[in-house]
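Record type: monomer structure entry
Structure origin: computed from sequence
Chain ID: A
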Amino acid sequence: MLDEDVKSLAQGRNFAAFTTLLPGGQPMTHVMWVDADDNHLLINTEVHRRKFLNVSEDPRVTVTVIDAANSYHYAEVRGRVVETVTGPEARAHIDFLSQKYVGQPYDPDAITSERVILRIAPDRQRVTG
């Protein structure tokens, strides 16, 4: 279950640093839109992207969600991708995220493969600030 402060930050209009592991073990971090349900952090990407390929091989990730109003207030979640969701649910989710962050549906021309939601279960959570 997600800590309520973590969930609140992830459901707000705050960006996340999403870290995965490359095949050689080197970390790779991207700034991402983020969301949450009661039990998971949610990251939406495409199946051809390196971050998706990374979690397909090694599901361990770290997500740091930074409060847009106070960068000293943030949540760090270390966990694992426990489920991937494709199809209409993933497509609808990217539109939801786009509305949240930029106020309009996601540009369909920007999609080059298939959208996928990464459901991340926390192993360790902490909130600072």
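Annotation 1: The chain has a mean pLDDT of 97.
Annotation 2: Residues 86 and 116 are 5 Å apart (CA to CA).
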